[in-house]
Amino acid sequence: MLIRKPNDIPSSEITPERVYINRREFIGKSAGIALGGAAGSALIGGGIGGARAGGPRHLSAQTPGGQRDWSTVRSERDEVLTPYEDVTSYNNFYEFGTQKEDPARNAHTLEPRPWTIEVGGLCANPGVYDLEDFIRPGTMEDRVYRMRCVEAWSMVIPWYGFALKDVIDRADPLGSARYVEFKTLHDPVQMPGQRSRVLAWPYVEGLRLDEARHPLTILATGVYGRDLPNQNGAPIRLVVPWKYGFKGIKSIVSMTFMEQEPYNTWKRSASFEYGFYANVNPEVNHPRWSQARERRLGELRRRETLLFNGYVDQVAGLYAGMDLRVYY
Amino acid sequence: MNKKRSRLLLKGVVWLLGLAPAGWLFWRGVTDRLGANPIEEILHRLGDTALIFLLVTLSITPIRRLTGWTSLASLRRPIGLFAFFYLTTHFLWYSIVDQTLDWDFIVEDVVMRPYILVGVTAWLLLIPLAITSTKGWIRRLRKNWQRLHRLVYVSTSLGVLHFYWQVKADTYWPIVATTVLVVLMLLRLRWRKGSSHVSSGGEVAPAGQGSSSD
Predict the structure, then answer these.
(1) What average pLDDT does range B17-28 have in this prediction?
(2) What are the structural domain ranges in chain B?
(3) Closest-CA residue in chain B for A274?
(4) If you measure CA to CA, which chain B residue comes closest to A97?
(5) CB-closest option in B37, B115, B165 to A297
(6) ipTM given for this complex
(7) Fewer Cβ neighbours under 10 Å: the N or C end of chain A?
(8) Could you report the per-residue pLDDT of A16-33, keeping only the tens digit for each?
(9) Percent of chain B with pLDDT over 90
(10) Radius of gyration (Cα) for chain B, nearest Å?
């Protein structure tokens, strides 16, 4: 096992928090600069990084002046953000319990630092990184995305992260690689929900390589300009805004390039109900409930669900010629 | 006198317990403690409560037989009516608040989603039972009253199925509910077999405080 448990790592190797925060501050600043010039094209899907001064995003490093006024931020469809309290208290993260409020209550046992991510499989440049090294190629920015759960509720969330493509390029997948697979930490001590057999652990998710390289696909390390709370998948998680929320695997410890389609956890749990693709689609119902509408948290009346969660212009090309009823 | 007083006390407790879930939900609503999705939270808690009350109704006869505490029988009507009250509220909450009376979707749900069809059927079956729960109806229907009120077994079973059918992966509580239901039904089956030749009857005796003297 290449992934070391926290207590195997000598304390001399653990980055002091001060240094780590400074690093993030630097990353944040350089991202802000980079986006200053590239705003617009880089902001598909309602990215707002360019509008921001590029200050530090870390909670403990925030200064009152550098704090963004999130109340004025909107998605590209002019949707208001779901409040931070709701985004961080209503979560599906079965590693901490199956009720929505369980993760916020139980996830304090997760230790998101230090954190190691293993990159492997069919790629020219495999390696084991600590989190800070892993995200180094990434250009950090805020991205406002809709999040549509397969259970027919949705949120609008300002993530903070970088394009998955940035770290795929560094790994340099081989020509034979067609998919990338991710795994969540498997540690029943840190994740008490894994003591129950409600799902097969560790949680597995995956994407086709072209989906993974799509500019909308990001790895998020923060939300609302702060580090991800544990219940939202600290320290790093996947966000694929045109797919149902369960594709957004949390607390990632490995990324593996493969030739065959990864066997994702919910498909394994009930393949009749959950597929590999899991694209948001109002026309393809869940066998037990309708996907035509959704409840946006905080709203009374249900909304119409949008094809590919409203990102149809950007992603429809990925599925040209595919029968979305078969590849659900 | 003394018996009457304890019966009154028992009734008071039932009313208190019957109204407590509604009061608790109301309190959480007023103090903003329903979480990020209050509509769903209320919907689910009303459904849970209805199912719990249905199972409690079904457990009264077995408990009475096991303990010999005969005055328990008088609690079946109020508890059953509380179950009906919560189930009705659950359905109204679903159609008025959750679906905002969009009839196209409600009809589609009822027709296309088996678990909703099953839930609605459970509610519909309870309506005649609630209507005929008065003393007058008990007298008027005589033997048929017992037959009619056996529908509560069907309704509760459908309720458990409805609960089971919507869970994504964690079947813990649906399994608990199923187990309780199965145990209660098996006890009845055993007693029914045992009493078929003794003809002690009373198993489906009408609810209400006056049942024994009617």
Answers:
(1) 97
(2) 2-192
(3) B168
(4) B170
(5) B37
(6) 0.85
(7) N
(8) 443 443 344 433 433 332
(9) 79
(10) 18
Provide the residue range defining the domain that includes A87.
75-319
Are A153 and B40 inside 8 Å of each other by CB? yes
**DSSP class of residue B212?**
T
Q: Which residues of chain A does B169 touch, with a Cβ-Cβ cutoff of 8 Å?
A: 94, 98, 198-199, 269-270
Task: Name the phi and psi angles at B26, rounded to 5.
Answer: -60, -45
Distance CA B95, CA B89 (A): 10
Q: From the candidates B37, B103, B168, which should be mutated to test the interface with A, based on the most A CB atoms within 10 A?
A: B168
Instruction: State the pLDDT at residue A163.
Output: 98
**Among the ranges given (A26-40, A242-256, A275-289, B91-105), the one the predictor scored with the smallest mean pLDDT:** A26-40
Phi-psi region of A75 (alpha: psi -120 to 50; beta: other; left: phi over 0): beta
In the prediction, which pLDDT does B197 show? 52
**Closest alpha carbon to B92 in B159, B162, B43, B25:** B43
Q: Is the peptide bond before B114 cis (omega within 30 degrees of 0)?
A: no
Backbone angles phi, psi at A254, to 5 degrees: -150, 155
**Residue A131 corresponds to which tokens in the numbers above?**
């989190």
C-alpha–C-alpha distance, residues B173 and B177, integer Å: 6
The candidate with the shortest Cα–Cα distance to A248, out of A201, A209, A206, A296, is A206
Q: Report yes or no: A240 and A215 within 8 Å, Cβ to Cβ.
A: no
C-beta neighbour count of A196 within 10 angstroms: 16
Q: Which residues of A touch B36 (CB under 8 A)?
A: 82, 85-86, 89-90, 100, 297-298
Q: What is the CATH number of the domain that holds A231?
A: 3.90.420.10
Residue B91 CB: number of other CB atoms within 10 A?
19
**pTM metric for this prediction:** 0.83
Chain A residues with CB inside 8 Å of B35's CB?
A: 89-90, 100-101
The mean pLDDT of A228-254, rounded to a whole number, is: 98
Say if residues A138 and A167 touch (Cβ distance below 8 Å). Answer: yes
Task: Please check whether residue A13 touches B, CB under 8 A.
Answer: no
Give a yes or no: residue A50 inside a domain.
Answer: no
Q: Is residue A62 part of a domain?
A: no
Q: Which residue has the higher pLDDT, A32 or A269?
A: A269
Q: Which two tokens stand for residue A177?
A: 């690689």
Q: For chain B, what percent of residues have pLDDT higher than 70?
A: 90
Reported as a single tens digit per residue, the pLDDT across B162-181 is 999 999 999 999 999 999 99
